[in-house]
Amino acid sequence: MHDIAAYLEESFLKELLFLPGITDISYNGEEIYYLDNQRGRVRSSIAVTPEEIGDFLRQIANFAERQFSYSEPILDVSFGRYRLNAVFRSLARVHNEKTFTFSLRIEREMALRSGDPDFFPGKSEEIILGLLAAGESIVIGGKTSTGKTELEKYLIAHLPPGTRVIVIDNVEELSLVPHEGIDMTHWLVNEAVPKGSFPSLVANSLRNNPDYVVVAEARGAEMLDALISVMSGHPIITSVHAKSLEALPSRMARLAMLSGPKIDRDSLIDDINEHLRAYVHLEKRIDGSGRVIRYVESIGLLNPKTHEMEILFREGNHG
To answer: Which residues are CB-neighbours of 35 under 8 A, at least 6 positions away?
Structure first.
C-alpha cells in the first residue's frame, strides 16, 4: 500500500494533497474539484484528460491488486490516509460521452481540537466528555462529511490512559489518532479473507477484553454484532448515517435487521433502548464567506423505560 500512496503523491494531484484544510478531491468526468474547510468546494485549475484519468485509476488498481474494468466498474480502495472510490467508463458519462469519475478522501491525523467553538457550541463538549467518562456507549449520527470520523478520533484521544480499545474499520484513518498511553488495537476489515468481515471482527473483539469497541461506521449487519458487544458489557463508539438525533435508534434497528429476515424489530428496538443510551447528531453549514462549519447539532440520552429521547443539548437552545 505504500507504493500506492507514493504513486498518488507524485501524480497530477500532488499540489492538492498536502494543502491544509483540503479533505476531498473529485473528478466529475470533466473537471477536478476539491473541498476546502475554509473555502467550500472549489474548481481546480489542474487540466487532465479522461484518458490520463483512466491510466491513473488503472495504476491505482494494479498497485492495490484490484480489478477495474468494464466488468468490474467500481474501484473502492483505502491506503494510508487516503480512500478512493472510482467508476469505470462503462458506467460514467459526461455530455453523453463515456468517461471516468473518482472521489478521493484525505484523512488528517486529527483536525478536531478541544475548545473548538465552531464544532462544540455551548456546553456540548462538556456533555460529550461527561458521557465518555461515565463509560457510556456513544452513537454518532449525521450526513456524509459532517465530521463523524473526526469526533470518533477526538473521543479515542480523550479516553483515560490504560484504556484498551479495539478499532474495527474498513479504512486506516482511525489508526492515525494520537493514542499515547491507550492500549489501542486496530483491525482492518477484509471481506476477501476468512473471518475478515465486520461481524466476525466485532465478535472476535469480545475475546480480547476491550474497555471500548470502536466500530468506525455501522453500515449494515455489523450493527447487530455491535449491539451484542454492548449487551455483553463492552461499550462501543460508532457512527451511523442518519438525518436527525431522534431517527438514530430506528435507523440502527433497520441496519441490525440486515443480519437476517427472522430478526424481530420490536425486540431490537427494546435492546437498543436498554443498552445504547447516548446519541450525538452532527450537522454542517456554510457561512457567509463560504467556509464549511461542522458542528454538534444535538445530544440525547435515551430513556430505556419510556423510549423517549431526553435532549441534553440542542444548537440554538443553549446559553
So the answer is: 22, 23, 24, 25, 26, 41, 42, 145, 292
